[in-house]
């Protein structure tokens, strides 16, 4: 009966919402939700026109909606997607390759000289500090408890979802059998509609028309660029041809060769690194695992550290190069301005 | 890390309102003179400490209001609601129809036990709203009946019930020429009881605040509201977020004193925090916060606040400041007992370190030079990294049994406070309060010796024995502070 149509509209709305439906969007009017569902299904290529013709007041169409839902279920791992959406973020993740050094020096050891007699008040003072730290530790334990219980509550919530997914898996076969009977009982849609398997979102005509002149313009610009570059190249070659002799030239050439060599080495390094299986990237959780765990999506901390080290070496080389450039630049400046002198920085 | 504020009595409620209003306006001011991102972090940190969020988005002060008369509470609640920017919790107050009539004993022994359950329930509800409770900030007067009597009672109960949470009492020292005859009795009872149950007593003297209003703010007819605003400004400059010691990239989470060293064992908690509230919780904890730095010794719990600059808005528009100038004045205020920028005695110098106090030293050295146990300087504003604090690291400023490295701390932030481009605040555990305390104890003792008004206290269960205990404890405190 069609009494179930509104519920099915809502269900489809929730399934199709990109984000886990929060309170505000769940409270939308049924008409809005139905309209949204229609366009979402349409944009995903749902083939049955009968759905698009359903009234949006939710009064009819439970069979069509059921078919749409089955279509979504049959198309991809929908329960898994929903579970992933609702997955509790424990937060124990670190972005790999973006680790910042946590340089926090621990508390300095109080240096009490053993020879001097210690004032009892100093001991009391230190005791007091210890007591404060202890209390704060206790408070933070409490905080952890509070947060843990919140986390547990959310995990419990997720568990309910997982249980529901399991339940679905058990009953799935029955569902599909039922759907087969529904489909058989369904009148076939007009062949014209069937021949048009998907209807993608319409691209306005004028948009296509506009693209052509832009492409032409781009091509023209590219030609112009090539031409200009060629001109410059010819001019440069002529100029270099005149200066090609002399020690300055050979020094410059050597510097260029070194730079190119470095660049090449860096490229090679990057290429070698990229050649292997795709490097895992993005957020990773830090866990302890067995020595001989199979290689999967994970990345070993040691490897990350290794990568960071080589990155560091590269950066250091770049720093050295830049410092050299700065020095040269400064020397040049000083040479051209005889009135300049060096003094130590203020405050020293 | 959040702080639950308990406002007690007329004084506590009026000051509490000003404090929340100051914190809120400052954190929402656009004059912070810092990046948008930094400003947001500052605001979030302030909010987490002092406000909780309600559904409609208006922040609610993490506060419990207590008074025995409804008048001031009603005024305070409606003033906050009228502001439209923040408010008090709908049910976060407790009041009765009849006050304590300036009788400390009545507040402590009658009102306190009678309403204990209701008041502690309210506080517990507020505590439950905090993911993580740093401690309590208890605002009360020292010499009254309701605020100070019940305040002492409540603090004691908080100590029993939340022994691990930090407790700081903001107490208002009465005018020297107060109009309440028993104010000295009330004061010694409050002080001695708080000394047993609180971790720190942050003292503001009415006389000093009054002078600041007259001399610096140039206010002609000074109202309590004016004074409370000055006071709230000082407290705000202490409690607003800052960075820890040197160049730390995160705002300290706990202004009262969380001190957890980052270690692998707190990895989990760190990550848990991360997931719960990404924007508002900062990941790293700091060692050495206010309480741990200033009041770890059980005999030295009295803190004073000095700040610079402080002036009327009109004058502020025509003033510029340098860190060197501000800190030079602040240091001299510290060593010469000055309560404000004006009238500093520039003759006072630290005693030459290493020399024994022989006859060469002026006889009344200790009357002039203010020896510190520990100091905390908080700097807020432009170019704060360039401020040179070496003047505060002189061993001669401190008691012989602490090294400046243990006794002196500094917090900084680029984010300007209130309307001041640069401002410095000093929280000092020093001899600032020895003289006023000695005077109050002396006056109370004289009255006690002639048994004046004692029956008003014994009538409600505060016996002569209790008075004697209070005298003993406070005289010990005076002696300890004198012999630094």
Q: Write down how many β-strands of chain B occur, each being a DSSP E stretch of 2 or more residues.
A: 13
Strand order of the largest sheet of chain B: 6-4-1-7-8-9-10-13-11-12
Estimate what percentage of residues of chain B fall within beta strands. Answer: 15-25%
Low-confidence stretches of chain A: 97-110, 192-201
Described by strand count, sense and barrel closure, the largest sheet of chain A is: 2 strands, antiparallel
Pfam families (chain B): Tubulin (PF00091)
Domain Tubulin/FtsZ GTPase (chain B): 47-247
Keywords (chain B): Cell projection, Cilium biogenesis/degradation, Cytoplasm, Cytoskeleton, GTP-binding, Microtubule, Nucleotide-binding, Nucleus
Function (chain B): Acts as a positive regulator of hedgehog signaling and regulates ciliary function.
Secondary-structure map:
The complex is a heterodimer of chains A (348) and B (484).
Chain A: H1 5-16, H2 23-26, H3 30-43, H4 49-52, H5 62-75, H6 78-86, E1 93-95, H7 120-185, H8 191-195, H9 205-243, H10 247-275, E2 283-285, H11 301-336
Helix pairs in contact in A: 1-3, 1-5, 5-7, 6-7
Chain B: E1 2-8, H1 9-27, H2 36-50, E2 51-53, E3 59-61, E4 63-67, H3 70-83, E5 87-88, E6 93-95, H4 104-128, E7 133-141, H5 146-161, E8 166-173, H6 183-197, E9 200-205, H7 206-216, H8 224-239, H9 267-276, H10 290-294, E10 302-308, H11 313-316, H12 323-335, H13 365-368, E11 372-381, H14 404-407, E12 408-413, E13 422-430, H15 434-449, H16 455-458, H17 464-482
Parallel strand pairs in B: 1-4, 1-7, 3-5, 4-6, 7-8, 8-9, 9-10, 11-12
Antiparallel strand pairs in B: 2-3, 10-13, 11-13
Helix pairs in contact in B: 1-2, 1-3, 1-5, 1-8, 4-5, 5-6, 6-15, 6-17, 7-8, 15-17
Task: Describe the fold and architecture.
The complex is a heterodimer of chains A (348) and B (484). With 348 residues, chain A is an all-alpha fold. Among the domains of chain A are: 82 residues, no CATH class; 65 residues; 37 residues; 55 residues, no CATH class. Helices cover 67% and strands 2% of the residues of chain A. A two-stranded antiparallel sheet of chain A has the order 1-2. In chain A, α1 packs across α3 and α6 packs antiparallel against α7. Chain A is flat and about 95 Å long. Chain B has 17 helices and 13 strands. A ten-stranded mixed beta sheet of chain B has the order 6-4-1-7-8-9-10-13-11-12, with helices on both faces. In chain B, α4 packs across α5. The longest helix of chain B is centred in the first third of the chain and has 25 residues. The chains are: A mainly alpha (348), B alpha/beta (484). At the A-B interface, α7 of A face α9 of B. Chain A: This is Tubulin epsilon and delta complex protein 1 domain-containing protein. Chain A: InterPro entries: TEDC1 (IPR043535), TEDC1_dom (IPR027996). Chain A: Keywords: Signal.
């Amino acid at each position: 009966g069609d009494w179930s149509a509104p519920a099915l509209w809502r269900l489809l709305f929730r399934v199709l919402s990109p984000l886990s439906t929060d309170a505000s969007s769940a409270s939308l009017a049924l008409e809005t939700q139905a309209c949204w569902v229609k366009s979402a299904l349409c944009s995903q290529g749902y083939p049955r026109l009968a759905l698009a013709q359903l009234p949006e007041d939710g009064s009819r169409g439970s069979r069509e909606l059921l078919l749409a839902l089955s279509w979504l279920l049959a198309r991809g791992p929908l329960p898994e997607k929903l579970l992933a959406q609702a997955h509790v973020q424990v937060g124990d993740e670190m972005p790999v390759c973006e680790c910042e050094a946590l340089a926090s020096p621990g508390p300095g050891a109080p240096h009490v000289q053993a020879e001097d007699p210690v004032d009892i008040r100093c001991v009391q003072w230190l005791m007091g500090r210890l007591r404060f730290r202890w209390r704060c530790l206790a408070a933070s334990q409490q905080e952890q408890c509070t947060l843990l219980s919140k986390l547990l509550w959310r995990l419990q919530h997720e568990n309910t979802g997982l249980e529901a997914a399991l339940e679905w898996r058990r009953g799935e076969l029955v569902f599909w059998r039922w759907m087969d009977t529904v489909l058989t009982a369904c009148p076939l849609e007009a062949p014209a509609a069937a021949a048009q398997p998907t209807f993608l979102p319409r691209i306005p005509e004028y948009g296509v028309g506009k693209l052509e002149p832009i492409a032409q313009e781009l091509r023209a610009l590219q030609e112009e660029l090539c031409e200009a570059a060629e001109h410059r190249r010819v001019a440069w070659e002529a100029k270099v041809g005149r200066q090609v002799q002399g020690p300055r030239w050979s020094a410059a050439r050597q510097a260029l060769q070194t730079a190119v060599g470095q660049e090449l080495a860096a490229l090679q390094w990057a290429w070698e690194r990229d050649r292997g299986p795709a490097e895992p990237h993005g957020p990773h959780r830090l866990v302890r695992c067995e020595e001989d765990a199979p290689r999967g999506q994970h990345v070993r901390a040691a490897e990350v550290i290794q990568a960071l080290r080589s990155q560091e070496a590269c950066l250091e080389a770049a720093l050295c190069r830049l410092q050299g450039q700065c020095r040269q630049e400064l020397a040049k400046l000083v040479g051209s301005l005889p009135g300049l002198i060096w003094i130590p920085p203020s405050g020293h | 890390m959040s702080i639950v504020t308990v406002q007690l009595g007329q004084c506590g409620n009026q000051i509490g309102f000003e404090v929340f209003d100051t914190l809120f306006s400052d954190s929402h001011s656009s004059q912070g003179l810092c990046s948008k991102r930094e400003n947001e972090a500052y605001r979030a940190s302030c909010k987490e400490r002092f406000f909780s969020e309600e559904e409609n988005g208006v922040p609610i002060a993490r506060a419990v209001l207590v008074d025995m008369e409804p008048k001031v509470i009603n005024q305070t609640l409606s003033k906050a609601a009228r502001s439209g920017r923040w408010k008090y919790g709908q049910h976060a107050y407790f009041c009765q129809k009849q006050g304590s009539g300036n009788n400390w004993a009545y507040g402590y022994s009658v009102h306190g036990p009678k309403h204990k359950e209701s008041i502690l329930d309210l506080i517990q509800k507020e505590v439950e709203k905090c993911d993580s409770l740093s401690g309590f900030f208890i605002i009360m007067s020292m010499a009254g009946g309701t605020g100070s009597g019940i305040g002492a009672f409540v603090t004691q109960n908080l100590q029993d019930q939340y022994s691990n949470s930090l407790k700081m009492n903001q107490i208002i020292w009465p005018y020297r020429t107060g109009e309440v005859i028993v104010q000295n009795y009330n004061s010694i009872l409050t002080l001695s009881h708080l000394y047993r149950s609180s971790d720190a007593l942050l003292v503001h003297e009415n006389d000093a605040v009054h002078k600041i209003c007259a001399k610096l703010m140039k206010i002609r007819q000074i109202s309590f509201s004016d004074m409370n605003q000055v006071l709230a400004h000082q407290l705000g400059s202490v409690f607003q977020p800052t960075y820890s010691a040197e160049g730390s990239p995160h705002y300290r989470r706990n202004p009262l004193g969380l001190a957890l060293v980052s270690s692998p064992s707190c990895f989990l908690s760190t990550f848990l925090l991360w997931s719960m509230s990404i924007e508002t919780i900062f990941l790293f904890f700091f060692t050495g916060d206010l309480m741990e730095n200033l009041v770890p010794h059980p005999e030295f719990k009295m803190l004073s606040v000095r700040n610079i600059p402080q002036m009327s808005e009109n004058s502020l528009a025509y003033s510029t400041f340098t860190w060197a100038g501000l800190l030079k004045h602040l240091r001299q205020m510290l060593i010469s007992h000055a309560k404000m920028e004006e009238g500093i005695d520039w003759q006072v110098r630290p005693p030459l370190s290493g020399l024994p106090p022989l006859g060469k030293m002026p006889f009344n050295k200790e009357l002039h030079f203010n020896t510190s146990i520990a100091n905390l300087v908080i700097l807020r504003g432009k170019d704060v990294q360039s401020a040179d604090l070496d003047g505060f690291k002189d061993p001669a400023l401190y008691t012989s049994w602490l090294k400046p490295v243990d006794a002196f701390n500094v917090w900084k932030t680029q984010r300007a406070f209130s309307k001041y481009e640069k401002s410095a605040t000093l929280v000092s555990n020093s001899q600032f309060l020895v003289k006023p305390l000695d005077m109050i104890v002396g006056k109370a003792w004289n009255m006690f010796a002639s048994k004046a008004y004692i029956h008003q206290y014994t009538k409600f269960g505060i016996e002569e024995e209790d008075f004697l205990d209070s005298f003993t404890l406070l005289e010990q405190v005076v002696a300890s502070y004198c012999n630094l």
